[in-house]
Amino acid sequence: MTPETTDTYTNPVLNADWSDPDVVRVGDDFYLTASSFGRVPGLPLLHSRDLVNWTLVGHALSRLEPADAFAAPRHDCGVWAPSLRHHAGRFWIFWGDPDHGIFQVNAPEIRGPWTAPHLVKAGKGLIDACPLWDEETGEAYLVHAWARSRSGVKNRLTGHRMRPDATGLLDEGKVIVDADRIPGWFTLEGPKLYKHDGRFWILAPAGGVETGWQGAFRSRDFFGPYEERVVLEQRDTEVNGPHQGGWVRTAAGEDWFLHFQQRGAYGRVVHLQPMTWPEGGWPVLGDDGAPVTEHARPGLPPQPPAAPATDDDFPGGRFGRQWSWTANPRDGWATRHSGDGLRLACVRSADAHDLRRLPNVLTQRLPGVPSVVEVDLRLDGEEPGARAGLAVLGDAYRWIGLQRDAEGTVRLVHRFAETVAEAERDADRPRPAPEGRVRLRIETVPGARCRFSYDLGEGFRPTGREFAATPWRWVGALLGLFALAPAGEGHAGTATFTRFRIGPR
């Protein structure tokens, strides 16, 4: 978030894991979506009027389909690299699910109502889909990439003619860019398809998420042949792997490009690059092809500083748009009530020993800057083994919270699990929490290192060693709230979270 009084902005403009962004302008408003993988709700929808300050206004996907496939966490599956477009008075989002195929949803307004997911092309390994409606000819097209992990194929883009209503495809498809034939190019993916200056353009990244570059391809015919050029790369900057995003033009004719940078446990943060189109030539991104850290703001009306929400008082037991479950939710996990506070059921599970396997963890993105995360917790579960807490989740994880022991005493506990571990262990000795209440704190420092502490009424006290947050395969580390109990019969009680806050450190 950049102060509105300055004439410049500083990257990243979204300093958290808004992976694989795509952007569109409708009137004076800009909208952005991003990959959500296996989290629900999915397909986040962000709004801006200046391309610098963004707010989260909703989600386009209330459940992942097929529903049974996402009853348990699948952090590297689901929604990959969506494309956001506006056509015929409707918003459209296309994405590839690597295990099921290419889907689309559409809506008359950005806040919906969004249609149920429609399968446009079934198949394994189909990812990163993008449509184009050619306003000159009335024809529609679709391009997508391939995931070798499912199909045995990668580094190429396949094109189709598409029905104008986007309900299906009109041909079997053709490889329109084979990057195995381009010296030095590998892992070509994430295509975004445009028509500009009488040509078809594909803006697509290659080279991998941490070390790659942004490519541009152009052709007079959709099916090729295409010529290529690298238009954005790291060079001597500190912005590794700058690529995969979308082009947008303001009403005044300025061009901008939003892309991600992979930052380990922080995930894929979003940068804004200036962009120009020399007449008849190739697009120029950033500072002559290198990413900018600071730049003059877009020529748009000044806007108040804004960023996606993080804090939550959970009014009436409801949680804000910033939260997502780790799989398709079920009734009864969160209870509505008349006061403030998130009341979670202590869901019984045979996987209570490993938070990574649980669908009933409510998560939001780890901030990309040093921060202090705090929340109040009260445990009302009477079942021995009932527990609840605040977690930093990834391939390895750590949490702090409350648990009721076999004698009925509620204790402050601090636990962790290594990447290869199948069960968690104590990170510090348990301590009595006689009132069953605690305020929990996680301080993050550079390098996504996390320090845990607690307040049982006598001020905050540190516990355990510093923990280095880790990402999941394609997802940055997540903050999580949970309540659970060991497998068994009957209701295991609840836990209530209040006053969730994230502030500067």
UniProtKB/TrEMBL annotation:
<dbReference type="GO" id="GO:0016787">
    <property type="term" value="F:hydrolase activity"/>
</dbReference>
<dbReference type="InterPro" id="IPR041542">
    <property type="entry name" value="GH43_C2"/>
</dbReference>
<feature type="region of interest" description="Disordered">
    <location>
        <begin position="291"/>
        <end position="320"/>
    </location>
</feature>
<protein>
    <submittedName>
        <fullName>Glycoside hydrolase 43 family protein</fullName>
    </submittedName>
</protein>
<keyword id="KW-0378">Hydrolase</keyword>
<dbReference type="Pfam" id="PF17851">
    <property type="entry name" value="GH43_C2"/>
</dbReference>
<keyword id="KW-0326">Glycosidase</keyword>
<dbReference type="InterPro" id="IPR006710">
    <property type="entry name" value="Glyco_hydro_43"/>
</dbReference>
<comment type="similarity">
    <text>Belongs to the glycosyl hydrolase 43 family.</text>
</comment>
<dbReference type="Pfam" id="PF04616">
    <property type="entry name" value="Glyco_hydro_43"/>
</dbReference>
<dbReference type="InterPro" id="IPR051795">
    <property type="entry name" value="Glycosyl_Hydrlase_43"/>
</dbReference>
<dbReference type="InterPro" id="IPR023296">
    <property type="entry name" value="Glyco_hydro_beta-prop_sf"/>
</dbReference>
<feature type="domain" description="Beta-xylosidase C-terminal Concanavalin A-like">
    <location>
        <begin position="312"/>
        <end position="501"/>
    </location>
</feature>
<dbReference type="InterPro" id="IPR013320">
    <property type="entry name" value="ConA-like_dom_sf"/>
</dbReference>
